[in-house]
Structures are given as structure tokens and as C-alpha cells.
Design a protein that fits this description.
- The chain is an alpha/beta fold and 280 residues long.
- Helix content is 44%, strand content 18%.
- It has two domains: 150 residues, Rossmann fold (3-Layer(aba) Sandwich); 120 residues, Rossmann fold (3-Layer(aba) Sandwich), CATH 3.40.50.1860.
- Strands 4-3-1-2-11-12 form a six-stranded parallel beta sheet, sandwiched between helices. The protein has a four-stranded parallel beta sheet with strand order 8-6-9-10. It has a two-stranded parallel sheet with strand order 5-7.
- The structure holds D-glutamic acid (DGL).
């Protein structure tokens, strides 16, 4: 196992996911901030997180974040809604060491949906979108974190959540035909509960890989929000205000707890550029 332990200066910004989904965020961040070195950590050996309980997700997310701190990251983005929903608040309250930052991916999306500027903490107000479909993992749906964050910012929004069992497993396996069939059946299930959503939130970073299928199944009138570009824009804004977190590393690095050969091959297929993972 390679030892990557840098003391002192920040080397890079960390991007974490239970598996391959966070690569959608990494790709958008890389396009927006090509000079910022990134450390990606995929906990592929333990994916999917979405069927685990909150304590389990908390322990796994802390272990991964510690590994990214050891790799020189002072700022880690949890590009995993499941980890962010089940563990982020608890981590920030009890665990994040001084001088380190751990951020989630849900707030930038809610700010976009409610047409707020980043960090606008004014009281909740009426917004244009009234019927919102949320597609996420079972653990994210169970946490109700999305509804809680939304209630801080908007009133009168009806959210119908659909737990999309199986989709992350299918994507991790590279079985896109199964993933597509599952997405269509989850959209049908959602539509039975909310026939005419105005907006749909892809509340799992794996789902942008299936964005076309979601849009097709939902129909052209539904605005589909996915996180990658929103998180990249919000991170760029954060780093403008806090440049000390950019880091002075030279290269990006991809770590996995899974099989590096297999994970590299799936990552290369998804991002359409060569990605090489090493063992975490
Ligand atoms: N990409 C993760 C998310 O955003 C997937 C979680 C899982 O492993 O189930 O929720």
C-alpha cells in the first residue's frame, strides 16, 4: 500500500464519494478549475452506501476523509449525497479538526433551485417551483436532509422523494442497461405519486451519468437539476474567498479502496479520458 503522508502545506482539494459517482463532480470541478490539483477518493469496496445505516456511513466517511487529510487535503468535498445527508452535520459538529473543512453537495443545488446567491441566509420565502421530485438513495431519502435544507430557504414547496434502489449498484457494476431500466421504473413510481413535477433533483452524484434517461422518462417540461456544475461553481466561489484551501500540489490523484484496475476502467469509460486509480 503506498504511503502518501504530506505534512504542512495543503496539496490539493479532496473530492470524496462512495464510488464512481463523485467523478461527475470531479470532472466539472476540473473543467472549471483546471489548475487546482484534486485528490479523488472512491470507497468502491464499501459502495453502495445508500443501503447502510447512518452510523456505518459516518464511520466510513470519517475513515475516507482522514485518508484524504493524510494525502494533504485541508478541504474535502463530500461529493456523495448519502454521506453528506447521513454524516456531514455530525462530522462538522463533533469531528472535523481545526484548520480543516468538509463541505457537502446539497446546499449549492438547493440554492440554485430556490434562486439564491451562495451563502444567502435570509429567511425562507416563496419560490417559483412548487412541485419537486427528488431522486436519491434510500439512505438520503430516509435522512430527510434535503427537505430540511430546503425548509431553511423556501416555503410552500411540495417535495416527493423516490428512493432509487439498485441504481448505484448497477452503475458501479458498469451495467448501464440495468441502470437505465431501473431509472425508468423509479420515474414511473414517482409519477404515480406526483404526476406533474415541475423540477426534478438528481440527488445522488451517480445519477448525472443517467441524466438523459431521467430527462427522457420525465419529459421535456421537467427541469432536471444535477449537482456537478453547481458544486463546481460554488467551490470556485469558495476558493476565491478562501484561496488558502487551493493547495500547492502539482498533480491530481485517484485513490480507491476497490480494485484499482477495474475502477480505473469504469472511470475511464465514464469520463471518456484516461483515469488511473491507485490503492488507497
Ligand atoms: N454517489 C452517492 C450519492 O451521491 C451514492 C451513494 C451510494 O453509494 O449509495 O449519494
Amino acid at each position: 500500500m503506498p504511503t502518501l503522508f504530506y505534512k504542512g502545506n495543503t496539496m490539493a482539494v479532496g473530492i470524496f464519494d462512495s464510488g464512481l459517482g463523485g467523478l461527475t463532480v470531479l470532472d466539472a470541478v476540473h473543467k472549471r478549475l483546471p489548475d487546482v490539483p484534486l485528490v479523488y477518493f472512491g470507497d468502491n469496496a464499501h459502495a453502495p452506501y445508500g443501503v447502510r445505516d447512518a452510523d456505518d456511513i459516518y464511520a466510513l466517511t470519517i475513515a475516507a476523509t482522514e485518508r484524504m487529510f493524510a494525502a494533504g487535503c485541508d478541504l474535502v468535498v463530500l461529493a456523495c449525497n448519502t454521506a453528506a445527508s447521513a454524516a456531514l452535520r455530525r462530522m462538522q459538529e463533533n469531528w472535523v479538526p481545526q484548520g480543516k473543512r468538509v463541505l457537502g453537495v446539497m446546499v449549492p443545488l438547493i440554492e440554485a433551485l430556490t434562486e439564491r446567491q451562495w451563502g444567502d441566509n435570509s429567511p425562507p420565502r416563496e419560490v417559483a417551483v412548487k412541485h419537486v421530485a427528488l431522486f436519491a438513495t434510500p439512505a438520503t431519502v430516509a435522512s430527510r436532509a434535503f427537505q430540511r435544507e430546503l425548509a431553511f430557504r423556501a416555503i410552500g414547496v411540495d417535495v416527493e422523494a423516490q428512493a432509487c434502489g439498485g441504481v448505484v449498484d448497477a452503475i458501479e457494476e458498469g451495467d448501464m442497461i440495468l441502470a437505465e431500466a431501473l431509472v425508468r421504473s423509479h420515474v414511473d413510481a414517482l409519477k404515480r405519486k406526483m404526476p406533474r413535477p415541475e423540477a426534478a433533483i438528481l440527488g445522488c452524484t451517480h445519477y448525472p451519468l443517467m441524466a438523459e434517461t431521467f430527462q427522457e422518462a420525465l419529459g421535456p417540461d421537467v427541469s432536471v437539476y444535477s449537482q456537478a456544475d453547481l458544486v463546481a461553481a460554488s467551490l470556485a466561489d469558495y476558493l476565491t474567498r478562501r484561496p488558502e484551501f487551493i493547495g500547492d500540489g502539482q498533480e491530481s490523484m485517484f485513490l480507491t479502496t476497490g480494485d484499482p484496475v477495474r475502477v480505473s476502467s469504469h472511470a475511464t469509460q465514464f469520463l471518456r479520458r484516461k483515469i488511473t486509480f491507485t490503492a488507497a
